[in-house]
Design brief:
This protein is an all-beta fold. Helix content is about 0%, strand content about 50%. It has strands at about 5, 10-15, 20-25, 30-40, 45-50, 60, 70-75, 80-85, 90-100, 115, 120-124. Strands 2, 4, 5, 6, 9, 10 and 11 form a seven-stranded mixed β-sheet that branches. It has a four-stranded antiparallel β-sheet with strand order 1-3-8-7, with no helix packed on it. A hairpin with a 4-residue loop joins strand 7 and strand 8. The N and C termini lie far apart (about 40 Å).
Length: about 120
């Protein structure tokens, strides 16, 4: 049974930090790219970061580049998203998702499996 469990969201003031975690189970972790996808109210889903646990390569959207860092602990089947210098426009539900294949995936529609999402709210 494939599962992606995202956690770590919460309420934080602008300029603050949060670390999201995504624990994967039920599939071979290193055969997938793991992405962080967020959806703000009234907006489309956006892939903000992606990592290939097998290759160690990463992708960041321009909106988060320099502030967010994605990493993986392959022994724990876990991907992290360290979010620093948070801004009110980062407020969204954050999902982790898995795409079969080791290449980075920038398009939400290409992901095969999705977690349940964790809410991040940044107050000004």
């Amino acid at each position: 049974d494939v599962q992606l469990q995202a956690s770590g969201g919460g309420l934080v003031q602008a300029g603050g930090s949060l670390r999201l975690s995504c624990v994967a189970s039920g599939f071979t972790f290193t055969n997938y790219a793991i992405g962080w996808v967020r959806q703000a109210p009234g907006k489309a889903r956006e892939v903000i970061s992606c990592i290939s646990p097998s290759y160690g390569t990463t992708y960041y959207a321009d909106s988060v580049k320099g502030r967010f860092t994605v990493s993986s602990d392959n022994a724990k089947n876990t991907v992290y998203l360290q979010m620093n210098d948070l801004k009110p426009e980062d407020t969204a539900v954050y999902y982790c998702a898995a795409d079969f294949g080791k290449d980075l995936t920038r398009w939400p529609s290409l992901y095969d499996y999705w977690g349940q999402g964790t809410l991040v709210t940044v107050s000004s």
